[in-house]
Design a protein that fits this description.
With 217 residues, the protein is an alpha+beta fold. The protein has 3 helices and 8 strands, in the order αααββββββββ. A hairpin with an 8-residue loop joins β1 and β2.
């Protein structure tokens, strides 16, 4: 709508000029106007663009060079950092695996602990009876659990089972000796009764009672 109004106004102005100046003058006006437009077009066509100038190309090339060098420097600087991060991650994984394996593997144990007590014994406090000691594969720290079966002696049940544990403990001179601790409460005796291997059997520290090992089974 606006363009059509402007076109009508331009036509009216041209007709007015034609009536005022005459046909020859109006043709001269149109020729001058076309000449001005043609001159502007030629100038714009011959004018070098900013992108084609040498200065612009030098600046653009310099910017591209700086950008490429920055990218190369950033990449080169990031490579050692990435390599260090990767090596740290691998070392951490290996450390965790070694820790987990260390937790899974039980500590080395002395399988000879308590084996000296294995066998059958007699008790002078209960003549006619017997005590049979055996070791188990159950451990608690350095303690190895044992089983004691007995009975048939004077003043005691015909059969009973006791629990205890054996371990190595330092003697007065600092040497490690085999000890055994028995819970006699199931047969009416004391608990945690400590004994040590003494020559041919077990000697209990509290009452100095000695169980000699018997060859009879």
């Amino acid at each position: 709508m606006v363009k059509s109004k402007a076109l009508r106004l331009w036509v009216a102005c041209c007709l007015g000029l034609l009536g005022t100046l005459g046909d020859s003058h109006f043709k001269a006006f149109l020729f001058a106007r076309r000449h001005i437009r043609a001159t502007r077009t030629v100038r714009q066509a011959n004018r070098p663009s900013v992108a084609d100038t040498t200065a612009f190309q030098e600046v653009a090339q310099r910017r591209r060079t700086v950008a490429n060098s920055r990218g190369t420097i950033d990449t080169q600087n990031s490579r050692p950092w990435r390599r260090s991060l990767l090596l740290s991650a691998v070392a951490l994984i290996a450390l965790r695996r070694s820790d987990s394996n260390a937790e899974e593997v039980p500590p080395a144990r002395d399988e000879t602990v308590g084996t000296i007590f294995i066998g059958r014994y007699t008790d002078p406090n209960h003549p006619g009876g017997y005590r049979e000691i055996s070791v188990t594969d159950n451990w608690q720290g350095d303690k190895r659990f044992v089983k004691i079966e007995g009975g048939g002696g004077r003043g005691e049940p015909a059969l009973y089972n006791l629990k205890g544990f054996t371990q190595k403990q330092p003697a007065k001179d600092g040497t490690l000796v085999d000890t055994i601790t028995i819970d006699f409460t199931p047969k009416g005796g004391p608990g945690n009764f400590l004994g040590v291997w003494d020559k041919d059997g077990i000697t209990f520290v509290r009452d100095n009672n000695h169980w000699p090992k018997s060859k009879k089974k």
